[in-house]
Amino acid sequence: MPVVDVQNIEGQQIAQTQLADDVFDVPVKTSVLHEIVTMQLAGRRAATATVRHRSEVQGSGKKLFRQKGTGRARRGDVKSPLLRGGGVVFGPDGRNYTYRPPKKVRKLALKMALSSKLQDKAIVVLDRFELEEVKTGTFVGVLKALSLDSVLIVTEKKNEKLELSSRNVPKVKVLRSEGLNVYDVLKYRTLVLLEPAVKNIEGRLRA
Q1: DSSP β-bridge partners for residue 3
Q2: Nearest to 115 by CA among 179, 201, 38
Q3: Residue 147, by phi and psi: left (phi above 0), alpha (psi -120 to 50) or beta?
Q4: Rg of the chain on CA atoms, in Å
Q5: Spans of all domains in the chain
Q6: pLDDT tens for residues 74-94?
Q7: Whole-model pTM over 0.70
């Protein structure tokens, strides 16, 4: 089992903890990670591009003029796609880009993302991250003490003071363990795990 140091928010080593082999030490396949990241980004697409077709355009259904005898081309109603302001024939209809790979693949990809961070020595485990008040300056001071820049912090439960103190800091995101995902793990340079959150993650990925 991999062993990592447990630090406090002053950057001092206070203990060590073991990480599960089947969660933090699995072979990494970039193709699986690519598939899941692509899925997440596709799910974020707005897909709002849409047009009004003939039946959706407001206007009279009356024929503009009689069929024969005028010398002009035959016409239907004002909603015809051939007329300005009429319906669109083959325009987009708000396509849905989301898709879902199998649950086993999604779970495996998250294990691979965590394993890649451990291989890169980019995982920091803290015993706790408690702030006395909501203050961005205090939070930034902790990051400097830990020599962290681009960081994803994973907590075991809601930590309102931490979440509010960090929301205006660039390249920083605070996430609860149940929301951990492949894209965010790979996006940030360092993964900071609170020690109780490690057990939550291992329990979730072993279930």
Answers
A1: 18
A2: 201
A3: left
A4: 27
A5: 3-28+102-206, 52-91
A6: 999 999 999 999 999 999 988
A7: yes
